[in-house]
Amino acid sequence: MTLIYRGIAGFFVFLLSLPVSANNSIHFTDTWARATFPMAETGAVYTTLMNHSQQPLTLVSVSVPEAVAASAEIHSITMSEGMMKMRELENGIELKPHGHAMLQPGGQHIMLVGLKEGLEPGTSFTLTLHFNDGSQQLLEVPVQDDSGDNDAMGKHHH
Predict the structure, then answer these.
(1) What is the pLDDT of residues 86-116, one digit of tens each?
(2) pTM to 2 decimal places
(3) What pLDDT does residue 22 have?
(4) pLDDT bracket for residue 79 (50, 70, 90)
(5) How would you classify the pairing of strands 69-80 and 83-88?
């Protein structure tokens, strides 16, 4: 009888390990964070998001473990009167059905605020993306220097 209970218990442990609300219709490519100097207070994450569903989705917020940064925000850089201005995108980023959004240097990106320590090339951390349908997607973010020639570039993530 204990073998049956172990099997049932093991099955429930397996179920609990599955993501509760993962969104399998969102795919990512070219995910990376720019390395910073050791005392930096902010950092930036870049990726390309692709919506493979029939429905529009909006990336409404992002979060990181407290060990990485105090918070993460969706930002955009725009030119206004010859000056670059960065602002938080409070309404998030909309992904049209079968559309994509490029988060890249000089444009839309994820800003890490209150870094606990600098982002060192060759390390990585987890970022959680939150969508308007209540789903979440975990994303492993490799840290690389500014040169852009890291092995992580171009790898496809789901």
Answers:
(1) 999 999 999 999 999 999 999 999 999 999 9
(2) 0.78
(3) 63
(4) confident
(5) antiparallel
